[in-house]
Structure formats: structure tokens, C-alpha cells
Amino acid sequence: MDFDSLRCFDAAATTLNFRAAASRVHLSPAAFSDRMHRLEEDLGAALFVRTTRQVELSEVGRRLLPLARDVLVRAQRLRAAITSPLASPPFELYVGTRYELGISWLCPALPSLTRRRPERTLHLFNGDSADLLLRLERGDLDAVVGSMRLTSPRLSYAAIHPEDYVLVARRRCLRRREDARGLTLVDVSRDLPLFRYFLDALPDADPWPFAHVEHMGGIGNIRRRLLDAPDRVAVLPRYFVAKELSSRRLVPLLPRVRLRSDSFRLVWRTGHPRTVELMALAEELRHHPLR
Q1: pLDDT band for position 197 (cuts 50, 70, 90)
Q2: How confident is the model at residue 54, as a pLDDT?
């Protein structure tokens, strides 16, 4: 039994997905499976119960896991003691988010987050909400930052920031419902329309009669479409268009309507072995204003 085998075991127990675990330790799936098979042979016991649909720790695996992690932590501390007797053992977190939120907020926050916790390495992954949640549940990601709807009982979260929305366009072209007949509504998708944040704030939620509806798949594309023509309107996160509102490249529409709000959350799998570190990360992210 060696440290590399224990690291593979730790990765597999964290992700419960051998392909995702292999990626974390930089091995091919075949090499990773071979290493785990040899570890189980050395121990004389199966560490996982594997079916075609899922991977779970066996009873022996559950007993061995805390001991294996303790060995790995002590080995990390032994190495760290060479350079600093007070250094904490290093660890990695794989965090997913939407591209726009990553480039405007999470990526710029990395230098400060690294200074606070130099032993922690944050890896970022961009995707849409459905892809991010799928990767989270199968173990490719440790956490996701977003405001997506959560329905799975297997997920836990910590609130980070409120997410306010605003109805905007290049000019004040929408003063009443009938004005929509000459305008184009630009939204993310048919399944997750941001315009609902506006409709749900009205006494009735009847659809508005827009001449056309465009689905752009992301808020970055929506903002670009609004800036290209004066007859398009959209609901967007206020933080995302703050500069355009300040410079009046975009203007708020129907400001007396108080749109529904949401919140950004850090989401992770319930029972994640690094829950304490993930909650600490959520607390740090609260100190970085959205932009």
C-alpha cells in the first residue's frame, strides 16, 4: 500500500465516480481502475460496491476511509513541516459556475481567496446550470456557484449574495403592456425565462404580447443583443449591467415594478468530506461583492 493508492481511494470515495476520480489524480480510467483493483487485492477486501449505475463504499471502505485520509493528511503535514512548521496541508476544490459569473466575479476573486488560504487550490469550470448540476451529482465538481433551482435532496447549499434583476433596454420603449407588440423580448431559454422575474411581480402573470422572442442561451449574449438595437428588451441581473446603467447605455424600464429576486448559492453534495472547507469558502465569497 502506497500514498498514491490511498490518494486514488480518497478521490474515488469523494466523487463516487471512477472516471471523475481518475481525472483528479491525472490517470487514465483504465490505469485508475487497475490501481484500485491492486489496492483491493493487497487489502484482501472490496472497498467499493459497483453496479452499472452507481458506485458506493463497501462496509470495509467506510471503515478504511477516515484512516486513509488521516494518513494522507499526516503525510502532507510532514512535507509542509520542511518549509513551514505551521503550514496547513494542501487540498483542492473543483468549483463550477456560469461563464459570465466566472469571468466577471469568481475569477477576479481568486487572488484574494488564494492569499487567505494558500493551502487551498481552486479549479474553475464553466457550464450551463443543467450541466453543472449533473457534474456536481456525479462527482466531477465539488461545488457549484449559481442561482439555479435545486430540487435534489442530495444537495446542500449556503447562500452567498442576493441576485436582483432589472428590466432594461437601450431606450425607454416600454411604458405599458401594449407597447410590447412592437418589441422583441430577449431571454435565456424557453425553460428558464428571466422575464418571469418581471411577470411574477405583477398582479397577474399573463404573457405579454411581444412581437418576437429570442433565446440567447446566456446573459452575456442577451446584453450584447440589447446593445445592438433599440427595440429589444430583457430582464438581466442588476450586477451584470451595472456599468451600462451607470453610463446610460441601457436604461431601466417600468422602474415602479419591483422584480422578484433570487440568490447566489454555493451548492455541494450532502455529506461531502470537505463540507467544513466548502462552508468556509461560502463565507469568504460573501465578502466579494458581485460585479
Answers
A1: very high
A2: 79
Cα–Cα nearest to 89, from 7, 1, 2: 7
pLDDT digits (tens, 9 = 90+) for 64-120: 988 888 888 777 767 666 665 555 678 889 999 998 889 889 999 999 999 889 889
pLDDT at 51: 79
Strands 143-146 and 91-97, by their bridges, are parallel
- Structural contact between residues 235 and 252, judged by C-beta atoms closer than 8 angstroms: no
